[in-house]
């Protein structure tokens, strides 16, 4: 027993050691850094690296550095192709909908709009007009704005030049300068709001969902009616939205999520 009254962790097995070395090699090409990251003996790391190179899961060597090998890249491609965000996000969305008792959406960004992939309704008698498969403008929707906030300003400008910033309601942001100011606030807060900008009487708070590259490709929103959440009160649900979106991002392999 150690000083905290707990048994020490069992030593790593062969499979665990291989995974430690593989993860370290993908993060650090140099042998000495791989050894430090993996926390294993140099001889052990050297032997495992040799096996991974021989099996084409890694390429390179101790002098030139290590990199992902063709077998690992092929395996990663198959894994990414098999990811269905509806399956990944579904249980998390269900849990969030039950917790906040609001309508929850998950949407995916295209080059010009946000398309609803998931909708979970609250237990309340009213229903949102949204539906799976429906596309809404990026600039007027909460989920769209968390995506735009991750874009380079030049890409936002190109979107506005290509499709414009059409007015959906009297509150829609239709000025490009004002949109950039709003996106700066989204980046600072880590969430966005839609306070009747896309549909009169409907409000939401949205959080970004990141993919395995760290890019914001999807969004999650908690939606309700303005009568229930007047003014900025929907922002009280921002922490719950962010936490759920972060969980989905982790499941998608987002770095640091």
How do the strands line up in the largest sheet?
5-4-3-8-7-6
Q: What is the helix fraction of residues, given as a range?
A: 40-55%
Number of helices: 9
Secondary structure: number of strands: 8
Kindly provide the radius of gyration, computed on alpha-carbon positions and rounded to a whole number of angstroms. 23 Å
What portion of the residues fall into strands of 2 or more residues? 15-25%
The helix-and-strand class reads: alpha+beta
- Regarding quaternary structure, what we see is single chain
Instruction: List segments where confidence is low: pLDDT < 50 over at least 5 consecutive residues.
Output: 1-10
For the report, how would you describe the main beta sheet? Answer: 6 strands, antiparallel
Residue-averaged pLDDT: 89
Q: What is the chain-wise order of helices and strands?
A: HHHEEHHEEEHHHEEEH
Query: What is the overall silhouette?
Result: elongated
How would you describe this protein?
This protein is α+β, with helices and mostly antiparallel strands. The protein has nine helices and eight strands. The chain has a six-stranded antiparallel sheet with strand order 5-4-3-8-7-6, sandwiched between helices. Strands 1-2 form a two-stranded antiparallel sheet. The protein is elongated, with a radius of gyration of 23 Å. The two termini are 34 Å apart.
Notable features of this structure?
two-stranded antiparallel ribbon, single chain, 257 residues, elongated, alpha+beta
């Amino acid at each position: 027993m150690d000083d905290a009254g707990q048994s020490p962790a069992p030593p790593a097995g062969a499979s665990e050691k291989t995974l430690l070395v593989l993860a370290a090699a993908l993060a650090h090409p140099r042998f000495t850094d791989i050894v430090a990251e993996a926390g294993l003996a140099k001889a052990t790391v050297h032997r495992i690296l040799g096996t991974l190179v021989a099996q084409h899961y890694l390429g390179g060597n101790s002098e030139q550095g290590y990199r992902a090998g063709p077998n690992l890249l092929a395996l990663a491609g198959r894994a990414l192709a098999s990811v269905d965000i509806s399956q990944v996000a579904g249980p998390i969305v269900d849990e969030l909908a039950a917790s906040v008792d609001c309508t929850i959406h998950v949407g995916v960004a295209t080059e010009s709009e946000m398309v609803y992939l998931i909708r979970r309704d609250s237990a309340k008698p009213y229903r949102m007009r949204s539906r799976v498969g429906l596309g809404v403008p990026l600039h007027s929707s909460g989920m769209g704005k968390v995506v735009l906030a991750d874009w380079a300003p030049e890409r936002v400008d190109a979107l506005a030049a290509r499709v414009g910033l059409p007015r959906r309601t009297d509150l829609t942001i239709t000025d490009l300068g004002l949109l950039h100011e709003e996106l700066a606030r989204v980046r600072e807060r880590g969430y966005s709001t839609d306070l009747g900008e896309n549909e009169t009487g409907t409000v939401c708070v949205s959080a970004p969902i990141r993919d395995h590259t760290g890019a914001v490709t999807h969004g999650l929103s908690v939606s309700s009616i303005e009568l229930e959440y007047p003014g900025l009160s929907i922002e009280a649900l921002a922490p719950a939205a962010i936490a759920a979106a972060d969980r989905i991002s982790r499941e998608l392999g987002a770095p640091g999520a």
